[in-house]
Structures are given as C-alpha cells and as structure tokens.
Amino acid sequence: MKTENQKAWFFVLPVLLLVAFNALIPMMTVVNYSVQETFGNNVFFWQGLDWFQQLMRSERFHAALGRQFLFTGIILAIEIPLGVIIALAMPRKGFWVPVCLVTMALPMLIPWNVVGAMWNIFTLPDIGLLGYFMNHVLGISYNMTQSPFAAWVTIIVMDVWHWTSLVVLLSYAGLVSIPEAYYQAAKIDGASSWSVFRFIQLPKMKQVLTIAILLRFMDSFNIYTEPFVLTGGGPGNSTTLLSIDLVKIALGQFDLGPAAAMSLIYFAITLLVSWLFYTLMTRNDTR
Amino acid sequence: MTKRHIIPIVYIIFLLLPIYWLIAMSFKTTGEILSGFSLFPQTWTFDNYRTIFTDPTWYGGYINSIIYVSINSVISVAVALPAAYAFSRYRFLGDKQLFFWLLTNRMAPAAVFALPFFQLYSAVGLFDTHLAVALAHCLFNIPLAVWILEGFMGGVPKELDETAYVDGYSFPRFFVTIFLPTVKAGVGVTAFFCFMFSWVELLLAKTLTAIAAKPIAATMTKTASSAGYELGLLAAAGTLTIIPGAIVIYFVRNYIARGFALGRV
Fold first, then answer.
1. What is the C-alpha separation between A278 and A76, in angstroms, rounded?
2. Candidate from A18, A102, A247 with C-beta closest to B253
3. Alpha-carbon separation of residue B146 from B177, B218, B227, B253 (angstroms)
4. pLDDT in tens, B197-237
5. 8 Å CB contact of A222 and B107
6. Which domain holds residue A168?
7. Which of B133, B145, B123 is CA-nearest to residue A25?
8. Is A33 inside a domain boundary?
C-alpha cells in the first residue's frame, strides 16, 4: 500500500511547473482566439461562441473529422491484430530476439517528415520501387497524386509500416512475462493452441494491448507530418486529415478564430476517448 | 526455423524495403534517378553525402537537432525521476487527477499548439534557440517519462526503501546510491524514449526555429521545395537521420519491449 504523504507534492513540483508553462499558457491563447475575431494588427473583437456554432454546421469540418475517424479506425483494425499475430510468431529466446526487436523498432526512430519523404520516393510511379513494381510488373495503374483511393491505401500502408512494431513490441513484452509453467500445464491438459491463446496469452496481453490501443489512438488521431509530406492532403482534399486541415486554416488562411475553436473541439474529442481508455486501463491495474 | 517464423521474416522484409530504397537512392546521381528505374545504383556516387558533410546549412542541422534532443532528454529525465518516485510511493491530494492531467498533454495534437508556442517563446525571448525546442518537447516527453519511470519504480518492492531508512540512510543518499541503480534500466529506457520522440518530432521544432537552431528535418523540407527535386540529396539526408536512432537503440536493446509497455509488465 502507498502511504499518505502530502510533501510528495514537492517531488512533482518541477514537472508541474514545466508542463504547465508549456500547456496552460498556449491553451489560454487558444481559448482567447476561439472567442474573438481579428483583422490583423493585433486588433481583436469579441465574437462569443460564433466560431463554435459555425464549426458545428461546417461541412468542411465534418468531412475532415469523418476522414480522421475513418483513418484511425482502419489503422487500429489492421495494426492491433497484425501486431499480435507477429508477436505470437516471434522467437522467445536466443540470438534472433534482439535482432528482431531492434529492426522492428527502426521505423519508429525515423523523423516523421523523413518517413513521409521516404514513402514518397518509394511510391513514385516510374522510379520508385513500389510504384514501378505496381505499374510495370503487376500492371496495376497506381499513382497517388491522381487517385484518391491510391493515396488512401498509401497513407494506411505507410502508417502500418511505421507503427505496427509498437503493437508487436508491447504484445511481445506481455507474452514473455508468461511463466513457462503455464504452457506446460496447458500441454498436460491437452489444450489446443487456440485455447492457449484465448485463456493464457490473451489475458496476459490485455493490459499491454490497452496501452497499445491508447497510444495508437492518440498518435494516429494527431497525425500530421507524415501524410502532409506524402500527399499534402491531396489529391483534392481526399487525405486532408484533421490536423492538416487545422494547420491550413490557422497558418495558411490565418483564420485564427475558427482554427482555435476547431483546436478545442479536436482536443476535447481526443481527451474524451483517451479518458475512456485510461479508465479502463487503470481499472485493470492490479498494482 | 519453423513455419511460423515466416511471419516475422516477411514483416521485417516489408519494414526494410522502403529503407533499402532510401539508402539505394542516396548513392545514385540525380541524373540516374530521373532517367528511369534501377534496382541498384548503376554508378555509385558519394556526392550527396559529400554535400551534406561540407555544407554548414546541412551538417549544422544535424548538430542543432542533436543539441536540443540531448537537452530535452536530460531535463525530462531529471524532473521526471522525483515525480515518478512520488507517484509510485505516496498518495497525496489530487495525485490521480495530476497524473491524468500530465497524460492529457501527451494527447494534445501538436498542430493545436504550433502557433501559441511560437508566440509564447517569442515573448520570452527564446525563439530560435535550442532551449526553446528542448522545453517545448517537454510538453509530451515529461508525461511519457513520468509514465514509464512510474511503471519501472512500481516494480521495485517498497521493502527496499524501508530497509534503507532502518539502516539510517537519508532520503537523498538512499535515492542516489540505492534506488537509482535499482531502476537504472528504467532510466536508460526513459532517456531513450525522450530522445526518440524529440528526434522524430518536426512540427514544433520547425515552428520554434528560424536559422540558428534549425533542425535537420526542417533543412530537408526547405531543400525539397527550393532546389527543385534533388532526390539523391534528400535520400542521403534521410539516411543519415536514421543513424542516431539506430545507435541509441542498441544500448537499450534488451529493455525496449518492457519500455514500450511503459514498464508495466
């Protein structure tokens, strides 16, 4: 049991101050913008909740939000099962374990704009490895600057490439924590590999998988750099996810009010979903 | 090798293909790249790398990135250590709320903060310094560091602390000489994750810098747009950004799985 000690606040004070400096001041700026209108020169007019009401009715916002949920839904549906399957098939001990882990972690260590640039080079229709293979070997017309479908497939494959390893590593960490005795007991009982998975491995992975879903949800919902570098939100607006649209409005058109209102709604959604996951996770926290 | 090992092998090949393509491109001349498809460089050239290592705007970008990433890792780990200890050992007023509030900052979309961050750091006179980027990255790295360290510290039995106090250790002496060595794997992994997330982030780093502290990633985007399509150069610069990550991950290779599980396995 933890002991009650109010002096522990002194231990968390430095963290509190640093994060508050970075979080509260910018957040107040955003709140300020969201209720005002500006025509430049630092002249602001009170606007009330107009921006929020406008946004609620804006088709552009609904479209971007829809694309965002679609993207996050698809990548979660692919990455979580795929990650578990790969983790189950990985060797548990020996020389190849660190080799596998390090190679798998590699995509996550590459700066996000380089990931975008790399996939851009990889998919160029006539000179990229994938683009050449699709167009000239398989004979499938593939050009993501022209076809929205190709652009979507590409950003999804890119995200699977980039982040499935996170799920693999988390599931793997859960799997190796299962004592060998459990497997032996299952063997004596003549359990099928499905029941070993269902009743031994899956329960052990439950907590790490919750973390995986939480992290993948947060990060994919906030994704900006990779799709921006890869497709620029195009062709048309087909891959303009929420963050890309937000930056377009805030820095491209300099519509600070609507952008700020959008930021707050955006943040609220992330917060709500993450809070649900977090509550689930801490409920299972036995410690 | 059994049949099921095919799955990780196919997956690793899938992971390596785009990386191979980036590296192969970096050794090709621009002429060769644009003239058509070739699986291997036909005429090997090191010109792309030579440009990067001789032009200060290029190699300066790497130095800038490494400086702010290092400052950030040191700050994040240093302040997260006592906080994580407090969260793992004590109950105090508002502890759960504070912990969740910290995590919300890990959830904040960077795009939301880009403009206010620019104004904030301009106002305090830190714009275009390494410190600005290092401090800004604390927004998401400190919560992560506290989260991971708390997981690792929670795995250390409380009896360790109690025995040390009975033996007459003062808190600072106990913390530095007994507790830190016990959780050193956790500290290493935490530093690695701070390094990683600061290294890969671009949006804030680009917003908070102009010339003096411009990160390598920003140099790349500028070049891509201004000098036309110098794919070879871009590929060489990209290849070089993979190296620091590959080096640091080597040191924590045995703990990465546990680190990604935030110490909670």
1. 17
2. A102
3. 20, 29, 43, 21
4. 899 888 888 888 888 888 887 777 765 554 456 788 888 88
5. yes
6. 52-284
7. B123
8. no
Domains of chain B, start order: 1-45 (no CATH), 56-260 (1.10.3720.10)
Q: Which of A234, A227, A222 is nearest to A266 (CA)?
A: A222
ipTM of the complex: 0.85
Is any Cβ of chain B less than 8 angstroms from the Cβ of A65? no
Residue A36 belongs to some domain of the structure? no
The size of the A-B interface in CB pairs under 8 A is 277
pLDDT tens digits, B99-126:
888 888 877 777 777 888 888 888 888 8
| A274 near B CB under 8 A | yes
Helix (H) or strand (E) holding B35: helix B30-35
Is there a contact between B103 and A128 if contact means CB atoms under 8 Å apart? no
Burial of A281 (0-12, 13-18, 19+ CB in 10 A): middle
Question: What length is written for chain A?
Answer: 287
User: What residues are paired with A146 via a beta bridge?
Assistant: none
Of A2, A9, A251, nearest to B115 by CB-CB distance is A251
A58-83 per-residue burial string, b: 16 or more CB within 10 A, e: under 16: eeebeebbebbeebbebbbebbbebb
Specify the amino acid at residue B34.
Answer: L
Rounded to a whole number of angstroms, the distance from the CA of A129 to the nearest CA of chain B is 7
**Residue A39: what pLDDT?**
65
Task: Note if the pTM is more than 0.90.
Answer: no
Q: Tokens at residue B66, please?
A: 């490494």
Per-residue buried b or exposed e for B8-36, using 16+ beta carbons within 10 Å of the residue's own CB: beebbeebeebbebbbbbbbbbbebbeee
Rounded Cα distance between B258 and A169, Å, is 8
The count of other CB atoms within 10 Å of the CB of residue A104 is 25
How far is it, in rounded angstroms, from Cα B64 to Cα B56?
Answer: 11
Residue A109 has its nearest CB partner, among B18, B138, B196, at: B196
CATH of the domain at A80: 1.10.3720.10
